[in-house]
Amino acid sequence: MAEVFDAAVIGAGAAGMMAAAVAGQRGLRVALVDHAAKLAEKIRISGGGRCNFTNLGAGPANFLSQNPHFCRSALAAYTPRDFLDLMRRHGIAWHEKHKGQLFCNDSSESVIRMLRAECDAGRVAWRMPCSVESVARDADCYVLRTSAGEIRAAQLVLACGGMAVPQVGATDFALRVARQFGLKIVEPRPALVPLVFDPQQWRPYGALSGVALEAEVSHGPARHATRFLEDLLFTHRGLSGPAILQISSFWNPGEPIVLDLAPELDLERELLAAKPGNRQQLHSVLSTLWPRRLAEQWLAQADGDSSRGHDGARAGGGRAGGGKLDGARADDVPGPAAGLAAMRMADIPDKQLRALAARIHRWELLPTGTAGYKKAEVMRGGVDTRAIDQKSMQARSVPGLYIIGEALDVTGWLGGYNFQWAWASGMACGKAL
Ligand code: FDA
User: PANTHER family given for it (predicted)?
Assistant: First the structure.
């Protein structure tokens, strides 16, 4: 015997629970189906276990999509303040970390408990763990064949998220079902993800694994570049940290990124000012301005590069510390003399110090790829929103089929934006069902 509902929601994550709770509280009979044994794993692991559940500044400009205006309506109808009201009603304490990012004081479990309680208040029927074997549509309803039997529902919501972190149950199920019903997909890719470099060329920098510093990272033509000023982390395989995760969502294979590794300093002025009569070695001086390990490795690399000549200096599949920056700039910026690290400040020609500062302020690198879905926080791309109604999240050509959350081609920056999209799109759908 099939179970009959007004709506079936596949995916009991952030967006799915929001939509199911809202629809249930409006009086609809809702089934919430998820194949995972544990509820909302992504909420649980988010924000280092404290869930960066929204961002006070969340607006359309913080999202990537091939249809950039699509998210406008849902974000305006359900704002971070609305979610804070919900948190307040459940007595959940929170704090702002930085740049409008809001985190739970205790644990992300409190957000999961809140959403579960909201679903229970709407008498949502939980079906989990329950795998969906097939989805079909007959004359008047959607038919789900599941491990818990057949479910029939007049409306179907795909809330199965994206492919990031398959270890906690992420799949491409939403994309497959959307394709089955004739919807287009914007090519999915890992986003908010570390970037990796050619292993051979990255080796000298891999030694810096664990070094973190603030950096400005940019991508795209200088006049229209996308820029983020955030922390950056060296890893064995490449670069990570918020600055890199942010820019990774904009990066495409074959494109360079540019780092300013001392964004808050005028390094040329600092080095020239430190020079007169100074008998300290350059690496000691640079270590007062920069992380010591980075200063030493950077200068050692510069020395090695100049003794090998410029071509040996390319690193990370691109243009590294001691090497030339790019074809145009290489002539303007002479390479440092061998043994630079050990030279006394007073003996180093101004030209060499200027060249060093220029390289640190503009390090152009060519990533060879990303660390993949296993390390990504989100998937970019997804169901093409040009076929989706922006107020209800319903597919225009497929009556009764709704898509919400990360499965859509709406990708937020790092910092609570992706959850805000999950809440807002879930709310829009829950009200429209
Ligand atoms: P979500 O992934 O939450 O839920 C999808 C649900 O569908 C899951 O429960 C899954 O089991 C289920 N499902 C998948 N395939 C299925 C199938 N075939 N059958 C049945 N069920 C299926 N964002 C943010 O704003 N702030 C933050 O702090 C973080 N931190 C963070 C850390 C880490 C490590 C990751 C991986 C991600 C984040 N994010 C984040 C991103 C955020 O978690 C993500 O964007 C939202 O959870 C997306 O919400 P959805 O409801 O769309 O998918």
Answer: OS12G0638800 PROTEIN (PTHR42887:SF2)
Q: Is 406 in the pocket of ligand 1 (CB under 6 A)?
A: yes
Q: What is the ipTM of this complex?
A: 0.99
Measured between alpha carbons, how far is 301 from 11 in angstroms, rounded to an integer? 49
Decide whether any atom of ligand 1 lies within 6 Å of the 80 Cβ: no
Q: Which pLDDT value is given to residue 362?
A: 96
Cβ 153 vs Cβ 7: under 8 Å: yes
CA 44 to centroid of ligand 1, rounded, Å: 10
At residue 317, the pLDDT reads: 40
- Enter the tokens of residue 350: 């101004």
The Cα–Cα gap between 144 and 3 comes to 10
- For helices 109-121 and 14-25, the axis angle rounded to 10 degrees is 30
Three-state SS across 95-118?
EECCCCEEEECCCCHHHHHHHHHH
> How far, in Å, from the CA of 366 to the mean position of ligand 1?
30
Instruction: State the DSSP H helix or E strand holding residue 240, giving kind and residue range, or none if neither.
Output: strand 238-240
| Ligand 1 pocket member 204 (CB < 6 A) | no
Q: Report how far ligand 1's centroid is from the alpha carbon of 407 (Å).
A: 9
Q: What is the pLDDT of residue 1?
A: 84
Q: Which atom of ligand 1 is the closest one to the Cα of 18?
A: 51
State which amino acid sits at residue 422. A
For the CA of 426, the closest atom of ligand 1 is 51
How far apart are the CA of 379 and the centre of ligand 1, in A? 10
Nearest residue CA, atom 29 of ligand 1?
46
| Assessment of whether the complete model's pTM goes beyond 0.90 | yes
Q: Which residue has the tokens 């992300």?
A: 108
Strand partners, 125: 31
Sign, CA torsion 279/262/207/364 = negative
Task: Give the pLDDT of residue 109.
Answer: 98
Residue 233 amino acid letter: L
Q: Compute mean pLDDT per 10 residues along the chain, 433 residues long, and list them.
A: 96 98 98 98 97 98 98 98 98 96 98 98 98 95 97 98 97 98 98 97 93 97 93 98 98 97 97 95 94 93 63 39 33 49 92 96 97 98 98 98 98 98 98 98
Is residue 283 in contact with ligand 1, taking CB distance under 6 Å? Answer: no
Give 401 Cα–ligand 1 centroid separation in angstroms.
20
pLDDT in tens, 47-102: 999 999 999 999 999 999 999 999 999 999 999 999 999 999 999 999 999 999 99
Residue 326 is classified by DSSP as: -
